[in-house]
Design brief:
Layout lengths: L25 H16 L2 H4 L13 H23 L7 H10 L1
Helix pairs in contact: 3-4
């Protein structure tokens, strides 16, 4: 599902700390990723057509908390505009929501 109001993630997190670049070892690619792809596609000619693989890492807790805060602010603004409802978000609840995710 694509959410239309979410901006591209690059630069989206504002003041969150950016971690060093992480390299995926060729050993990991050959021993873990390749067998998964081979099992899924089952034919080598399909594997040969894959030019690049993008790896995604889970968000850190501060990144999740900031994403939750931005989402809640978006929906609070939307509720105010459309329904004239004021939503107040408590910082502790934002932290709790980020832990659940």
């Amino acid at each position: 599902m694509v959410v239309s109001h979410v901006k591209p993630l690059f630069g989206f997190l504002g003041d969150c700390e950016v971690h060093d670049r992480i390299n995926v070892s060729s050993k990991f690619k050959e021993r873990v990723v390749r067998p998964i792809l081979k099992h899924h596609f089952q034919r080598d000619e399909f594997l040969g057509r894959i030019n690049e693989i993008v790896y995604f890492l889970p968000f850190s807790k501060p990144e999740l908390a900031q994403l939750v805060t931005k989402e809640l602010k978006f929906w609070a603004d939307k509720a105010k505009q459309k329904h004239k409802i004021d939503l107040k978000v408590i910082t502790k609840s934002t932290y709790q929501l980020s832990i659940i995710l």
